[in-house]
Amino acid sequence: VVPFASFYKPLFSLLPHRETFTQDGHRMEMAVEVSRALSQRDPNLVLSSAFKLCITQRDLASLQEGSWLNDEVINFYLSLVMTRSSSVGQGLKVYSFSTFFFPKLHGGGHAAVKRWTKAVDLFQYDIILVPLHLGVHWSLAVNLPRFMGLYLREEHKARKHQDLDECKWTVGSLRASEIPQQKNGSDCGVFACKYADYIAQGRPLTFRQCHMPLFRKLMIWEILNQRLL
């Protein structure tokens, strides 16, 4: 296990936001908790359980530097993003699909996934997140990308019995220069999670590749404690 006490102090000062978690004592406690979790010898040991998901030591180990995040970690983290949005009274309402949604939609269309949102009215949300695994790369789709248009029109027709007025959905776009860019071959999953984290709060995407080592450690702590910083 590689401790992060040696590098977390300078990186913490660079973080775009985390102002209430900058005390040395708190940071050291977090570092110890993260290191303890990663040092567990049983890879099948469940270290966090919520949202009908279980995170094992093996899952958390995918958050170590150089590793690719797995479905369990991404689904758990995006569930934390949704939970935070539902607890903030005046904040953006966020819904996230699981990583298994898009392959099902892509393969079978609306009919294959309509049961997934049977108890959810997507049209009451401000932001919809869709994590995508494209071969060997994680990415994140937000709101109404082209491949979601037909699905949402059919979902609206089936649920509301009328056509979707797409003018009521504000869809913005960013230039590539405005989006933080991955500079290696392993941090795509972390970038996808942090895109979701920031967008769900209405924050500009001010983080960079240099933040990824610390973000990985913070994500472990957040998953263990089942709350976002």
Automatic annotation (TrEMBL):
Keywords: Hydrolase, Protease, Thiol protease. Residues 53-199 form the Ubiquitin-like protease family profile domain. GO terms for molecular function: deSUMOylase activity. PANTHER family: SENTRIN-SPECIFIC PROTEASE 2, SENTRIN/SUMO-SPECIFIC PROTEASE. Belongs to the peptidase C48 family. Coiled coil: none annotated. It comes from the Eukaryota. GO terms for biological process: protein desumoylation; proteolysis. This is SUMO specific peptidase 2. It comes from Hucho hucho. It holds the Pfam family Peptidase_C48. GO terms for cellular component: nucleus.
